[in-house]
Design brief:
Largest sheet of chain B: 5 strands, mixed, barrel
Largest sheet of chain A: 6 strands, antiparallel
Mean pLDDT of chain B: 80
Number of strands of chain A: 11
Structural class of chain A: alpha+beta
Strand content of chain B: 25-35%
Strand order of the largest sheet of chain B: 2-4-5-7-6
Helix content of chain B: 25-40%
Strand content of chain A: 5-15%
Largest interface: A-B, 53 and 46 residues
Order of helices and strands of chain B: HEHEEEEEEH
Helix content of chain A: 55-70%
Distance between the termini of chain A: 55 Å
Oligomer: heterodimer
Number of strands of chain B: 7
Number of helices of chain B: 3
Number of helices of chain A: 20
Radius of gyration of chain B: 22 Å
Structural class of chain B: alpha+beta
Chain lengths: 642, 144
């Protein structure tokens, strides 16, 4: 029954999406009938509630392991721990697409409920666009990816969830990422709405900004968490692989980061109008491209759940319609967007333009590198693009971007003088240049990119706290703190990347039980290797004793696990965190002579990468809270004055 | 500066960024694209040296040999047309075994052998790397 209820709710929600779009159009057309436009808000909220309930139905089916539902039977198993039954809901194609649509509808419902600043007609147009967006993806779900499909006869038990996905990290990583990824649809709809009603200006930018910030924070968290998940779950010791699926989340982030900065220029200074609207369209377009890459089955990875050409062409068609439609609207209406306010070549606006240009270049490089193998395949050529392409191409531009990031906040709006800016930036610049020399002398063999990266991190780290210099810290607005924390986070993450890739130590050996080996500052002894049994897996577990210098010995337990449903082997790395890095141990295979393979890493400052990521997200959150709080206060004082 | 002129400059800068990204990507792709080879593709020709490429095929029967250090293995990749000896230092994936598909990432050496830095084996019985599937069907060595 619950499956039919879920499907019914989904059809109803799709029906409401149609009504939302039609009412929106009529409301804009028939200006003498305000009741039509007024109805759009409640419809958007109802649509969100219905699809949210449908999603809850699916979660319920997974919890009770209803094997008569095809999706549950194919992706779950009754002896899985409860957490993985729940997270299994979105650990498959249909369920994750339902989550996708649910987030899209909730974002629309959120605007309908909370947005009070933007012009009435622009809001109606925005909700109409959001309804049209949702419609395409409802069609995709209902016609080609029905999550509630029944299976007759029902099997005895399910086929289980991919063990790589049976991890606490997975429970939170996809929903977080989706709230960011799909939350960006709000920016897209706002842009479409403002283009339709010719309302591109500072007021529209101020209304759009908190939504973009919120989605961006979630996206940042999702990417950071995903990177850590790949790091500890895959057992390869790496934190970014330039996998197409990683790029699929990075590309919307790059566009959204650019948008976040240009929307501030538009809100504060009324410049970069057309450009901001373009970025809002591009940001969500990248989300759709990412969904296409991940969900079409065109890629082989942990994330590509099913290979089905029909689905691929369906999403491709949706992608072309939505992106093409928005770009066509942009082309039609860009002429009506007035020029923005003028600024000098040395000014904060100019620095933010540079930020946008660099981010655009990185985005282009990543997009081309990600799509190239797919295009080449169409011409029957097998090519893969990896770190040797991405690292230098994207990395070098990113370093220039980060130098601009340090300088930008120290510049005045509209017009500033170069000598003054240089004077304000003197200390960070000096630290950057000195560190270039010192690092080269101390570590002559260091690679070029880590070398420049470490110096840039020191420059940006000191530069990003410079805006607080000589300020009353208690009276500094929260959004300024947000900017400082986020920029500092970029420097911290960059320092972690540079130090880890330049100074990591790796040891690959085969040892007998009782033997000791050395990695970096550690001596590691393999004490014993024993079989153990978990809830739905068996494993061989090593006991190791690691000692740093003369310090206390520490016990590590890396495992080689074997899951029964579906039969899969995984490697569980043992990771110990120190203040200055992590010791990472992987248990390999036993040779015929009885020795065990061990792979050990000492990864200095590697934790800074994710610490930096969380700081970036925290900065965004502070800025969001600061903006909303100030606006609330502003509204109140207006009310008092009136 | 007039607003119109500024807008023109900004539009040109934006265009420049897009073109710049394209040029940067094109030069990077030219140098760093990692091509896929089956043993038959490099038989009788000089394989590209010093470039990251991938080699895919079946691990030949009874060809896996372990070195005394316990972490270096030697094996032969074949596709029914030719054979390439491969050396790999590391922990081989669980599904790496003889008479099974493998994709090795690494470089060719001047003597025609291949040094792998990473091995990708079938994730499970159903999985076959897509590029391998195409090649194997083409070379006709895939019996199933």
């Amino acid at each position: 029954m619950i499956a039919e209820l879920g499907l019914g709710l989904l059809w109803l929600a799709a029906g409401l999406a149609i009504i939302q779009a039609v009412l929106g159009m009529l409301g804009l057309w028939q200006t003498n009938r305000p009741d039509l436009g007024n109805a759009v808000r409640p419809v958007a909220v109802a649509q969100a509630v219905l699809v949210g309930m449908a999603f809850c139905c699916l979660i319920y089916l997974f919890i009770v392991s209803d094997m008569s539902v095809k999706l549950v039977a194919a992706n779950s198993h009754s002896d899985k721990p409860l957490l993985y039954k729940v997270s299994g809901t979105w650990g498959n194609h249909e369920g994750s697409m339902l989550l996708w649509v649910a987030v899209l509808a909730m974002a629309g419902g959120g605007i309908a409920l909370a947005e009070r600043r933007v012009r009435r007609d622009t809001l109606i147009a925005t909700l109409m666009a959001q309804g049209l967006l949702a419609l395409g993806f409802y069609a995709f779900l209902l016609f080609s990816s029905n999550p509630f499909e029944r299976l007759n006869p029902a099997p005895q038990d399910g086929q289980g969830l991919n063990p790589l996905l049976q991890d606490p990290g997975l429970a939170f990583h996809p929903p977080t990422l989706y709230f960011g990824y799909v939350g960006m649809s709000v920016a897209f709809s706002f842009a479409v709405g403002a283009l339709i009603t010719r309302d591109v200006g500072p007021a529209f930018a101020r209304a759009m900004r908190p939504w973009v910030l919120g989605a961006w924070v979630m996206l940042t968290l999702g990417i950071t968490a995903g990177s850590y998940w790949a790091y500890y779950e895959l057992g390869w010791g790496g934190w970014w692989f330039w996998d197409p699926v990683e790029n699929a989340s990075l590309m919307p982030w790059l566009a959204a980061t650019a948008l976040l900065h240009s929307v501030t220029v538009l809100a504060t200074r009324d410049a970069l109008r057309a450009w901001t609207v373009m970025l809002a369209v591009v940001a969500f377009s990248m989300s759709i491209v990412g969904t296409f890459l991940v969900r079409s089955g065109i890629l082989t990875s942990v994330h590509a759940f099913a290979v089905d050409p029909q689905r691929g062409s369906f999403i491709l068609a949706l992608m072309l319609i939505y992106i093409g439609g928005a770009l066509a609207l942009f082309a039609l209406r860009v002429g009506t967007v007035r020029e923005g306010a003028v600024f000098e070549p040395v000014s904060r606006e100019a620095a933010l333009v540079l930020n946008n240009l660099f981010l655009t270049v990185i985005l282009g490089v990543v997009l081309i590198g990600t799509l190239y193998p797919i295009v080449a395949q169409a011409f029957d050529q097998q090519v893969s693009i990896g770190p040797p392409y991405f690292n230098p191409a994207a990395g070098s531009v990113a370093l220039m971007l980060i130098v601009v990031m340090a300088a930008g906040p120290l510049m005045r709006w509209r017009s500033d003088s170069a000598p003054k800016v240089l004077r304000r930036l003197a200390i960070p610049l000096a630290i950057g240049i000195v560190s270039l020399v010192v690092v080269r002398l101390l570590a002559p063999d260091m690679g070029v990119l880590p070398w420049l990266g470490l110096s840039t991190a020191l420059l940006a780290g000191t530069g990003s706290i410079a805006p607080l210099w000589k300020r009353n810290l208690l009276r500094t607005p929260l959004f300024t703190w947000g900017m400082v924390v986020a920029h500092l986070g970029v420097a911290v993450a960059l320092a972690g990347m540079a130090v880890d890739s330049a100074f990591f130590k790796e040891r690959l050996v085969a040892v007998n039980e009782g033997e000791t080996t050395v990695v970096g500052p550690f001596s590691v002894k393999l004490v014993s290797v024993e079989p153990i049994i978990g809830p739905n897996w068996t494993a061989i577990e090593a006991t190791m004793e690691a000692r740093r210098g003369d310090g206390q010995p520490l016990t590590l337990h890396p495992q080689a696990r074997n899951y029964s449903t579906p039969p899969t082997d995984t490697s569980e790395a043992a990771i110990t965190t120190y203040i200055d890095g992590q010791l990472y141990a992987v248990l390999g295979k036993q040779g015929q002579d009885g020795r065990w393979q061990l792979r050990l890493w000492w990864k200095p400052l590697v934790t800074f990468i994710w610490l930096g990521g969380f700081m970036i997200a925290l900065g965004g959150l502070l800025a969001l809270v600061g903006r909303v709080w100030r606006e609330r206060r502003g509204v109140k004082s207006e009310e008092i004055a009136a | 500066m007039k607003a119109k002129k500024q807008r023109l400059i900004l539009a040109l800068l934006g265009l420049g960024a897009v073109v710049g990204a394209g040029l940067l990507a094109a030069s990077g792709l030219k140098q760093e694209a990692s091509f896929f080879f089956a043993p038959g593709d490099v038989a009788g020709i000089d394989p590209p040296l010093g470039k990251a490429v991938r080699l895919g095929g079946m691990v030949a029967d009874k060809s896996i040999r372990h070195d005394a250090d316990g972490v270096t293995i030697h094996f032969v990749v074949e596709d029914g047309k030719a054979k390439v000896p491969v050396v790999f230092k590391g922990i081989a994936p669980d599904l790496f075994k003889e008479n099974s598909g493998v994709v090795a990432e690494g470089e060719f050496r001047a003597d025609g052998s291949f040094v792998a830095s990473n091995l990708l084996a079938k994730h499970d019985e159903r999985y076959m790397p897509p590029e391998l599937e195409g090649k194997m069907h083409k070379t006709g060595s895939l019996t199933s």
